[in-house]
Amino acid sequence: MRAVKRIIIFSLFSMIAACQFSGTELIKPYATDGCSKFPDGTHAHRNLWLKCCTEHDQKYWAGGSYDERANADVELRACVRSLGEPAIAELMLAGVRVGGSPWWPSSFRWGYGWPYTHGYKTLTPDELEQVRKQREALHVK
Asked: What is the reported pTM?
């Protein structure tokens, strides 16, 4: 009986590990919600920094390493700052640094195109190919 329990437990752990690390994860289709829970612009210019947010979302959707996330966030700040909104740029940077962790169960976390457990990691060649194909289909960089 003990041997049967051990076999069952070993089998369960093996299946979980195979699902988790099989390398067959598929990225979800790209989607953006604009600036997430933040306004897309000012009252006078409602979509002033929306393009900055959608470019940032493309990077967040694809995910990758911690450094790639940090660079995406700094690029968001630079984009918004270039529109003449330095205070908003700093506020947005603070927001994405706190709220964009891959460990938050949100629709706007780092790597939101991948299953929740993807976390921070350099994308594999297969994952990069999936991202490339999706971007090509959407005509984005």
From this structure: 0.81
